[in-house]
Amino acid sequence: MVVVGAGPVGLTAALLLARRGLDVLVLEQHRAPYPLPRAVHLDDEVFRVLQAAGVADAVAVRSRPMAGLRLLDGAHRVLAEFARDPAAGVNGWPQGSLVHQPDLEQELAAAAERTPGITVVRGVEVTGLSQDGTTVDITAVDRNSGADRSVRARAVFGCDGANSTVRSSIGTSLRELGRPDRWLVLDVVSDEELPVWPGAHQVCDSRQPATFMPVTGDRYRWECRLRPGETVAHATTPERLRRLLAPVDPRKVEVVRAVEYTFRAAVADRWRAGRVLLAGDAAHLSPPFVGQGMGLGLRDVHQVAWKLADVLAGRAEEGLLDTYQAEREPHARALIRVAQLLGALMTGGGPVGDVVRHRVLAVVRRIPAVARLATDSRTPPLPRGPLVERRGRAGRRLAGTLVPQPEVLAGGRRGRLDDVLGPGAAELVRDGAGLTVRRDDGTVLAVDDPSGALAAWMGGARAVVVRPDRIARSAR
Ligand SMILES: Cc1cc2nc3c(=O)[nH]c(=O)nc-3n(C[C@H](O)[C@H](O)[C@H](O)COP(=O)(O)OP(=O)(O)OC[C@H]3O[C@@H](n4cnc5c(N)ncnc54)[C@H](O)[C@@H]3O)c2cc1C
């Protein structure tokens, strides 16, 4: 099995596949990991993917819970604040965490290094591929020696980012869902702790929309939309920096990077051709407003790794892979739409929009249902399909949703539910004797759920079949 690209999605794919017993070769064009930060936010659902890959605890140590979201006007007055609980929530991790993407990639790379079955080869650029149904032939160039290389694999994951070669090799392309948006991304470090609230800030000023947040340690991120024709040099003059960073004095911090990024909303028309599958930025691109770009990619590989492992092991028909795009694309599109909508709501509408926002937010922030919506990290359920059976009352309510992850007691030990469910499918059964987990390897465990979170989620259901990616398949 070959994974093209050792970014966060490719490395996570490799770990998930190796944990299912597959030998994985990761081919990465660059000789060293990408050192510059991009993603800074991970939600609690995505942390469960890192948990499945065996790196969540290590990443948690290098990240920190996010306090929530503050919407500010152009003068940085708070229009609304939506707090997030820093304690572990319904998914067993803080609802939002701030992380330095190179730290995350370092943890993933270190885990890949020590995991038997994974080989990461850097400095090899994949140039094309062809397939005959059960094998894929990959052509590549060794950037160290200039020599051509060829590799034969039983399947290929194209996790090679926005300009994916794998995507063009299978004749598919990205469909734009909106206009590209040019932003300045500014990474700053400071010896002193800056007077910044420990959450994400969105400056809702149509003249100069911006986002800023403390990341981890001494790192801070500012992003602001570039005006038409404006360059990074124009947007980073001392006067502009003073206004952007206010009340922080730019002379007291070090700007480690100022770069232009074009944020896009786009989805590939076909995510799979035979044994070649696309994941992460190769399959979709999201604007940054809800911090989900990388999260979508990590969900992709979590939801397809077990299917691919089953197909390659002969436990399932090839057709199982048809469910990949059918399940993932609507979810990715939904979150991209939310990001576009939030971006427009927070920054669009010109000066009139600014006034309306000011008035409307002053009222709606006090409505508990709105606050819940703004801070709830739950993402949409998967659509009905062969692996999401919405039959019966319990099935209609639960199938396609993620099972909560409380701390439970099982076999005399306290632990997170996912670890108790094990790597395969499992059934949660509730009867007069209490709650039982029946794993597909035959293990049966009585489970104590002190928080009552599982019972509350199951409601009237007596049994729920949970897929290996922790999504409820059916309930009765
Ligand atoms: C400024 C900014 C802020 C962001 N903020 C967030 C956020 O808060 N939360 C979030 O979830 N996401 C965020 N994102 C998005 C996130 O960074 C990306 O979605 C994520 O990096 C995608 O991961 P990936 O592994 O799919 O692709 P990449 O990280 O791009 O990795 C692809 C890898 O494939 C390699 N490769 C490419 N072509 C080849 C080839 N032909 N042969 C071999 N190797 C190849 C590349 O060198 C690279 O290492 C942000 C992005 C930006 C730019």
Which characteristics define this entry?
alpha+beta; seven-stranded mixed β-sheet; 3 domains; globular; 29 strands; 476 residues; binds flavin-adenine dinucleotide; seven-stranded antiparallel β-sheet; FAD/NAD(P)-binding domain; 29% strand; D-Amino Acid Oxidase, Chain A, domain 2
Short description:
The chain is α+β, with helices and mostly antiparallel strands and 476 residues long. It is 30% helix and 29% strand.
Describe this structure in words.
Strand 16 (210-214) and strand 17 form a beta hairpin. With 476 residues, this protein is α+β, with helices and mostly antiparallel strands. It folds into 3 domains: 2-65 and 88-177 and 265-338, FAD/NAD(P)-binding domain, CATH 3.50.50; 181-263, D-Amino Acid Oxidase, subunit A, domain 2 (D-Amino Acid Oxidase, Chain A, domain 2), CATH 3.30.9; 392-475, no CATH class. The longest helix has 26 residues, at 322-347. It starts with a strand and ends with a strand. The chain has a 7-stranded mixed β-sheet. The chain has a 7-stranded antiparallel β-sheet with strand order 24-23-27-26-25-28-29. Helix 1 runs parallel beside helix 4. The protein has 14 helices and 29 strands. It is 30% helix and 29% strand. The site of flavin-adenine dinucleotide has 34 residues, from helix 1, strand 2, strand 9 and helix 8.
